[in-house]
């Protein structure tokens, strides 16, 4: 049965985000020939709309007002609600990002419906959507079904494969929202991370407290360069971030970023459940740790027991030799 699916889009520097493109592909598949729409808020939204059409959207609800450039949840929720009221979707998909984590529950409350957070897949089960998400710190998966409509779900990056959209063009509808946010942003600190974004990288190299100091990350950076900085990005455990060894923006885990790369290598990371909550969805996990009983090995497909100061240079040499 065909469905009407809406994606809440995110973009950065005039470029639609990779995860929003994935959501549009997932929405196209789930819609089974129905309609896919997107909500875009912020100055470049008209430019982004054409990227969204190329990725599969049929319709874009936009507001190019600069009032949306900074994410203000109480204002965004009104704008998205305007689009939902006009479109009446069966399912609303958001990224499992700082925006999606804040907006998803607010929307569900406003619309008196349910939200499933941090999902890794959504299926249409005989007319009802079912959402799967990790639970117990990533050690198990729970499946939820929705009774209320619209169903709302926040989706982890890399949960859907990107497919080529077939529309290319679509309709643009202006969002009507005159609400005024109660929030004032007084200061903003921007951390600039060079290279690939952690959530988009197919390979994540994550360092932990066992590195012994910030210089340990230089060795991991050298490994990333040997692999290729167009493929590998660096992450950190919270313990290493708390010590100021690595920017907190690249912390992996329950209170950091959730990553689902093809390959995750935990280097001198113990594998605490709060850390695994952020990386257990990785397709292949490799652990490098000098303690053979480290929890990280339990979640790993491959493990190297040893001092990272010997193992990582050996890996770099082996890659360079190829
Ligand atoms: C509410 C809450 C939320 C949290 N959120 C997060 C989160 O989002 N992300 C997160 O990461 N943590 C989080 N934590 C913290 C988490 O519980 C752990 O304390 C943390 O992940 C430990 O980091 P670590 O593995 O780097 O350090 P450690 O536990 O100190 O482990 C270091 C590891 O390095 C190994 N090692 C030491 N030297 C070497 C060497 N030379 N070569 C190879 N291996 C070596 C050791 O054997 C050890 O296994 C949270 C905790 C709480 C309570």
Quaternary state of this entry equals: single chain
Strands, count: 17
Query: How far from one another are the termini?
Result: 51 Å
Largest β sheet strand count, sense and barrel closure: 7 strands, parallel
Q: Strand order within the widest sheet?
A: 7-11-6-1-4-5-12
Topology pattern, helix = H, strand = E: EEEHEHEHEHEEEEEEEHEHEHEEH
Radius of gyration equals: 21 Å
Bound ligands, named by name, code or SMILES? flavin-adenine dinucleotide
The structure class reads alpha/beta
**Contiguous uncertain segments of 5+ residues:** none
Look up the CATH topology of the largest domain.
Answer: Rossmann fold
Q: Count the DSSP helices.
A: 8
The number of domains: 2
Identify the CATH architecture of the largest domain.
3-Layer(aba) Sandwich
Overall morphology: globular
Q: In percent, how much strand structure appears in the residues?
A: 25-35%
């Amino acid at each position: 049965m065909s469905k009407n699916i809406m994606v809440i889009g995110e973009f950065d520097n005039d470029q639609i985000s990779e995860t929003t493109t994935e959501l549009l592909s997932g929405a196209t598949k789930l819609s089974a020939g129905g309609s896919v729409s997107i909500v875009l808020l912020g100055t470049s939204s008209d430019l982004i709309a054409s990227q969204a059409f190329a990725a599969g959207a049929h319709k874009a609800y936009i507001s190019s007002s600069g009032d949306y450039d900074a994410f203000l949840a109480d204002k965004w929720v009104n704008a998205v609600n305007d689009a939902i009221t006009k479109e009446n979707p069966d399912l609303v998909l958001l990224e499992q990002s700082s925006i999606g984590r804040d907006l998803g529950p607010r929307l569900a409350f406003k619309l008196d419906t349910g939200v499933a957070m941090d999902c890794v897949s959504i299926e249409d089960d005989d007319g009802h959507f079912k959402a799967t998400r990790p639970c117990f710190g990533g050690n198990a998966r729970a499946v939820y079904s929705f009774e209320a409509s619209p169903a709302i779900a926040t989706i982890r990056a890399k949960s859907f494969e990107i497919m080529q959209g077939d529309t290319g063009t679509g309709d643009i509808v202006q969002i009507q929202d005159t609400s005024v946010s109660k929030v004032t942003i007084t200061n903003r600190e921007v951390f600039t991370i060079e290279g690939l974004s952690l959530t988009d990288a197919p390979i994540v190299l994550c360092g932990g407290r066992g590195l012994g100091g910030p210089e340990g990350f230089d060795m991991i950076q050298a490994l990333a360069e040997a692999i290729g900085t167009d493929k590998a990005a660096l992450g950190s455990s919270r313990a290493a971030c708390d010590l100021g060894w690595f920017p907190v923006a690249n912390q992996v885990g329950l209170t950091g970023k959730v990553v689902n790369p093809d390959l995750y290598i935990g280097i001198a990371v113990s594998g605490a459940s709060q850390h695994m909550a952020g990386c257990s969805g990785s397709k292949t996990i490799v652990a490098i740790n000098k303690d053979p009983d480290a929890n990280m090995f339990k979640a790993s497909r491959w493990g190297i027991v040893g001092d990272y100061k010997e193992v990582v240079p050996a890996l770099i040499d082996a890659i360079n030799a190829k």
